[in-house]
Amino acid sequence: VVVVVVCMFVRTGIVFAPVSRLKRELFSTFSPFPGSSSTPSLRVNRNNNDDINDININNNGVSGRQYLHSERRRSMSTHSFTINTSWDNKPLQEEKKHVVLHINTDPNGIRLTFNAPFYNDKQPDHAPGPMMNLWDYEVVEVFFLGKDNRYLEVELGPHGHHLALQLDGVRNIVQQELPLDVELARNEDDGRWTASVTIPNDYLPDGLDKFNAYAINGEGEQRVYNALFPVLKKEDNNQQPDFHRLEWFQQLPEDIRSHCEAIGGGEAE
Question: Which residue has the higher pLDDT, 156 or 8?
Answer without folding.
Answer: 156
